[in-house]
Amino acid sequence: MAALTEKTVLDALRPVQDPEAHRSIVDLGMVRKVEIAGGFVTVEVALTIKGCPLHTVIQDEVEKAVRNLPGVTDCRVILATMTDEERARFRDVLQGGTGAERSQGVEDVPPLLRPNVQTRFVAVTSGKGGVGKSTVTANLALALARDGYRVGVIDADIYGFSIPGLFGAADRKPTVIDELIMPVQAEGVKIMSMNFFVPENTPVIWRGPMLGKMLRNFFAEVHWGDLDVMLLDLPPGTGDVALDVHQLLPKAGELIVTTPQRNAADVAVRAGMMAKKTGHEILGVVENMAYRVCPHCGGRDELFGRGGGQRVADELKVKVLAQIPLQPETLGETGLYEPDTPAGQAFDDLAKIVGGLVSAGLAG
To answer: Which residues belong to any copy of the MIP18 family-like domain (predicted)?
Structure first.
């Protein structure tokens, strides 16, 4: 039997991850001390903040990993709180680039904006409000996560933020570690929104430059970790935030959301034309509230007319990727749809199409 040493304990703890940072607690410098007395092992773990809500998860995982080592008869886990210096090192590990990146002088570039990033960016936009763009974004994110993708959502609709509410997370607050923000996680999706930083029902009264700065902070000051897909819920129309996204993410793909109504379709075309002029690839059109499934006969009631999605697709020379039915029933207090409902099935189908596009590298 191998000797029980500090190294063997640290090796056993290396697979244990911080639940928010998704990195090894050893690599993050959270294991402050290991003491061994015969078969009794004491591990001191420094948590990022006092009263960390996930402390029991970390404690249980550490105990389990240590107790599984040969020769361990008992284990004690001491939970402490990081010093300012430890938090600064924690942030450096999370945000630090590779050696090659440091040699090229790009260590100050946010990880998501670095040249070799593998994350694919998909902006969800519309010509006008009220077409369900945010609902489409949230449910597409959920469906992609169900398919195994690592998904993040930036609520870039800074005046009309609604993504946290759709996920049932409007009352939650992100953890902040040495000015590095951990995104809120809900339903397997990482979320960041102005909703988390302003009092309830307080309007955001900012001019364009401030909006652009906040959007950049969502990339620079948030630890997103490794993502496969980042969805951005853009404000409706063709304003400053949309322009900032085009400048920040020149290779992003875009989904255009409309309803069957002609007035919604006409302004959606303008949003799509802007995307084309800025070099973004339009992945396709999503026609939301396309029909209602009759609860009696299963037929389609086209309450808002027909043809809006196809009209936009024809003008932009792309395809209609999905027609989402109108469905009032959602999951609990959220704006999310169960996968076995008509709307949920439509989003699952859309996720497979979008997932195929991003996997092929067509959206970034």
So the answer is: 7-77
